[in-house]
Structures are given as C-alpha cells and as structure tokens.
Amino acid sequence: MNDFLLSFFDEHQPRRIRVIENTLKNRRTVSTLFWAKQYGILKWTGAERSLERKQIENSIAELVKANLIQRNPDGQVLLTTLGVLRQEELAGEQYQPHFFDWYWLANTRRIEQRLLLGIQVASELSYHNRYYAPVVNEYHEQQIVKRWVLSWRGNIINDLVQELKLFGDSLESADERLANYFFYSLIGHRITGKNAMQLSEQLELPGYQLPVIKQDALLAIAAFANSYQGVLNRLLVDLLAKSPLSQSANQTLLLYQQGISISQIAKKRRIKANTVREHLLEAAIVHPDSIDWERSLPVSIRSQLAKHYQGKMKDWQFDPEIVPGGPAAFYYFRLYQLYEERLNDK
C-alpha cells in the first residue's frame, strides 16, 4: 500500500489526502473531481473502492516516518527528495494501466460479478453440467445471466469463445500481463481461477499492484463490450454508462443544452439551483466539450475575473467580495478556473 499511495504525490504540488482517497473510492463530489483533475489522477476514479481510511492513515504515517513525504501546515502532502527518488525507482517496476481513461464507463465490481458468472455458466453448459456452485449467488445477476443464455440466437458457446479470443488479442497487444491476468482469473468447468498469490507469482508483480491490473482488465472488457455489438455486449450492456457524467448531472446538462435556464431547470427537476450549478460544474470538469462556455461564463464576468485572477491557477483564492454572481459567485469562480485551464491546454 505504501508504494501504491506514494505514486499519487508530487514534489511541487501539495496534495490533499482526502482527494486521493475519495478519487480511489469513487466519491464523486465536484470538489473531488476538480482537484483530481488538477492532480492528474482523474482516471484513477473508482480504482480502489474497498480502500479503508485506516489503511491510508497507516500508510501516510509510515511514509512520513520514512521521510518519503512531508505534511505542510494545512495538512497537504509533498514528496521529499527521498520520496522523489523512491518514486523514480518504482516507476519502472509498477504496472502502468492502459484502459483507465474509461474509468467512467462502468462499476467494475458489477462487471466482474456478471462476467465471471456468465463465463462460468457458459463453460459448464459446454460440458452439459447442471450441478455446480455458481460463483455469484445474487439472484438478480443469476436471472440476468440465465436470460442471456436462453435468449441468444446462435451458438452462445462458440460466439463467446470467438469474442474472448478477439478480446485476448487486443489485451495482449497492450500488455501480455494484462491478458494473462484476465484469463487466469476466469472460473469455469473444473477451473477455479488463480488466487492472488498465484497471480502475483505468475505475473511477477507485487501483490499491491494486483488491484490495479484487475481494474485495468475490467475496464478493458467494459470498453470492448461497449464497442463490439456481440455476446459480451448483450451480457453487460445495462452496466455500461452512456456518459462520463452521473445520471442526474446528465439529465441537467441535457436540459441546459436545450437553452433552459438554471432556475427553470431547478424548478422543472425539483432540485436546488445550486445543485444544478454543481451538475454543470461536473460536466465542465469531466466532459468540457459538452459545455457552451460563452453562455455559461459570459464575457462580462470573465473580464471582471481576469482583473483579479492572474498567474498560476493553483494560487487563486476565492473571494466573494470580488467575484460577481451573488449566490452563484463560487460557481463562476470555479468555471473561470476551468475555462482558463482549457485555454492553456490548447
């Protein structure tokens, strides 16, 4: 855990521990999304959903004791010189994800459950075996898999095998270890799948990196199912998100794109105007091309903000006395930060 956590810190940019924790656990507040983007870790959203705060606190304490990180007076963390050296040592050893940009596409826990069950059922079916313990006991998932098997028109076994071969080839072209992890983990007729210790030895990866390669494999299968209209798509399609936004934020954005005002959206959706603004900020962070920036941040407001906010964005401090908009002042401040960041990235 220590080496894993160390990779999220920087020697120049102080970082908030809670932002890293919330990102890994998929707690998608606007604040977490904004700062995760600033830290360059947005793609790690949901990568360690089972992480416990005690684990993080213990690791932070050990890293501080080893003089690899230090906390500033605000409690934010910076790498020390030793920490930078250690990070560089680890860079060549650590598994580098290939599919984490698809972090928004699916809840990988549910993808894993249904995929393992679906492949197990198909495997046992190919041997005409009806007497086995299902790897997933949730009734809802079992019924979905059952319907998947019975409703497929064609030879589901052959079609599944062909798709898995195609998927395996794509994984192998990205990283052979990724393909090996995926197929070693599968459960089928008289195949139990390798345990964590066996996977670690087989892939020559330390145990703390297994959750990373697991997340990568599950996002890869989600991306494959999303783009290939076949048997895996039929199995997983209802688990695949259609947008990087949360469902509620996406509903708000669609109304806003129709030209409806923030106050009208709040009334129509029976939510607070501030909630509408949070949804639009979420869109500006994770899907900036969906925003009409000229409408959302009028030139009159940009001009006022430009007089007071210049230089490095990380040094800007919100001041309600100088930011226009009254109740919407912070909304405009954050939008302006994202607007300027977007201009600088072009």
Structural class: mainly alpha
What pattern of helices and strands is seen along the backbone? HHHHEEHHHHHHHHHHHHHH
The 3D shape can be described as globular
Biggest sheet, in brief? 2 strands, antiparallel
What's the assembly state of these chains?
single chain
Number of domains: 4
Q: What ranges have pLDDT less than 50 throughout 5 or more consecutive residues?
A: none
Estimate the strand proportion.
under 5%
Count the DSSP helices.
18
Spatial order of the strands forming the largest sheet: 1-2
What percent of residues adopt helix (DSSP H or I)?
Answer: 55-70%
The radius of gyration computed from the alpha-carbon positions, rounded to a whole number of angstroms, is: 23 Å
**C-alpha end-to-end distance:** 36 Å
Q: Overall pLDDT, averaged?
A: 94
| Total number of strands | 2
Protein name: Helix-turn-helix domain-containing protein
Pfam families: HTH_40
Domain Helicase Helix-turn-helix: 248-310
InterPro entries: Helicase_HTH
